[in-house]
Every structure is written in structure tokens, then in C-alpha cells.
Amino acid sequence: MRLTREDVIAGVPAVWLRDVLRRCGPRFRTSVFAGDAQMTPRKATNLLQALASDGYLDRVGPDWQMTIRAGALCRAQTRKPFSRAVAQRHLDGFLERVHQANASPDWVWWVEEVALFGSFLDAELDPVSDVDVVLRLTPRYEGDEFREKAQQFTWAAIQNGRTFPNFSHRVMWPKTALVRFLRGNATAIELTEEHDGVLQLVTPRVVYFRSDQG
Questions:
Q1: What are the E-state strand segments in the chain?
Q2: What angle do CA 73, 75, 79 make, to 5 degrees?
Q3: How far is 1 from 197, CA to CA, in rounded Å?
């Protein structure tokens, strides 16, 4: 997803709204939003209600909770579009790294499936905003063996100088490292994982199954 400085959502600049929601987090109170947005509580409430009507927020008791649509907005970039030729090169390189990762015994996760959605699927569009990719990752091992392999992977990274800000980042490192490898330097690739729920909002095109490798 790509934003321009001219885009408007619920009557406010989309880029500004994206930045406010990023700071508020996935679940927040009206007072938090109002303070971050520098709005009166009444104006903040009106805007939040409009966002809920447009499918960006759900009301959960006294809180507002971001929907899948709001999550996509928070990940949106404001970069320039890519020519279709450049986007295709980035996708080709990405898929090559998928094959490399699944062929290597070093990783703790499989790339089970890769699907595309968004502007790149419209063959008439050139340039395109980016290449929206949904990944489905699955563990290579089960139970204690998975935990052992993941710990070994993370410990190797620590021995090579990798540090982690907290325990959660440390636990997630085997998956995070794989995603970083897959992305490489492909700035046109916009990655999301299947569990983020984006597939409920789009019609994807699957371009890779792990079974394809035989």
C-alpha cells in the first residue's frame, strides 16, 4: 500500500493519520488519541467514530481497536512508485531467495506459500505502487526439536554479535532473520504474513507453493 501527501481518510490527511495510529498502537483510549493528535476530546471522538464507520476501528469496551484495514494503513509507505520492470526484477529476486531458503538446512522455518495482491496484479498499471506479498511460514520441526533448533539459531546470532532489545525479539529472531533474508534489498517488496488477516480483504494470486520443489 502506498500513500501520497494528497490522500485523505475521514476528512484528514492520510499520512498524518497513519503516523498518529502508529504511535497509538493497536488498542487505545480516546484520550490517548486526542493527546497524540492534539485534538479536543470531542473532535477526536468524532474522527474515531468516522474511522470506525469506514472500517478502520472497532469499539471494544472503552477502547478503540485497529482493524486489518488500519493495520494496512499503518504499514503504508509514501515512496515513489516503481516501474513494472523494476518491480518484476525485485519479485524475481525475492522468489529466488525463497527457493534458496527452502533448500538450505540453516533455517528453522519453511516458506510454505507466497501470494501477491494489490496494484502489481493489474497488468495495465505501469508504474505500480509496490509488490504486495503475503507469506505463509511454517515450522520445520515440532515440539522440543523446534525449540532446540530455534535456540541454536538465536545463540549463533548472539555469538556473532547480535543483540536483542527484549526477550520477545530474541524468541522471534529465527523468523525475523528469515523474513529479512527474503526481503533483501528489494525496496519494491511489501511483505505481510498470512496471520495478519490481509487475505480477508483481498483476492490474492498464489505464485509459490513449497510442494513445487518436490
A1: 8-9, 12-13, 27-29, 57-60, 63-66, 109-117, 131-139, 189-193, 205-209
A2: 100
A3: 15
CATH class of 84-213: alpha beta
| In the block, residue with C-alpha cell 464507520 | 53
DSSP 127-175: SBS-EEEEEEEEESS-HHHHHHHHHHHHHHHHHTT---SSHHHHHHHHH
**178, containing H or E segment:** helix 167-183
Question: Amino acid letter at 176?
Answer: T
Q: What is the mean pLDDT of each run of 10 residues along the chain (214 residues)?
A: 82 93 91 93 96 94 91 80 94 97 96 91 89 93 96 96 90 94 91 68 85 56
Q: Give me the residue spans of the domains in the chain.
A: 8-75, 84-213
Let me know if the fold of 8-75 is the same as that of 84-213. no
- The CATH architecture assigned to 8-75 reads Orthogonal Bundle (1.10)
pLDDT given for residue 214 in this prediction: 41
The sign one gets for the Cα dihedral 23, 26, 28, 30 is positive
pLDDT given at position 199: 62
Q: What angle do CA 72, 178, 146 make, to 5 degrees?
A: 110
pLDDT at position 73 is 87
Count of residues in the chain: 214
- Do 2 and 76 form a contact (C-beta atoms < 8 A)? yes
Residue partners of 160: CB distance under 8 A and separation at least 6 = none
